[in-house]
Design brief:
Length: 118
């Protein structure tokens, strides 16, 4: 059974930083793209950042160079370094991975709350 386990959310002041981590556990799978999405109350879930197996990165327009996604393939882990956080970054952040076992599907973590407030 494949599981995505997130960590690193919390409360931070505007201008501060947080680092999110997401580890994929289980056996007998292949991971393709890994990434982060977020969902604020009353809003749709949106892409924050994603990275392919080849290392190609894609960021949401609102990131504006403030966040950086990285991936440790050996550890099946993806990270999101978030700097210069703003109150509008407040949301639940979800880890996502495209994983193939018998067929390819999207897997999601349980979500981690990020709150940016003074």
């Amino acid at each position: 059974q494949v599981q995505l386990v997130e960590s690193g959310g919390g409360l931070v002041q505007p201008g501060g930083s947080l680092r999110l981590s997401c580890a994929v556990s289980g056996t007998g799978f292949t991971i393709y793209t890994m990434g982060w999405y977020r969902q604020a109350p009353g809003k749709q879930r949106e892409l924050v950042a994603a990275v392919t197996t080849a290392g190609t990165m894609n960021y949401g327009r609102f990131v504006l160079g403030r966040f950086r996604i990285s991936r440790d393939t050996a550890k099946n882990t993806v990270y999101l370094q978030m700097n210069s956080l703003k109150p509008e970054d407040t949301a639940v952040y979800y880890c996502n991975a495209g994983i193939q076992i018998t067929s390819r599907a999207d897997y999601w973590g349980q979500g981690t709350q990020v709150t940016v407030s003074s």
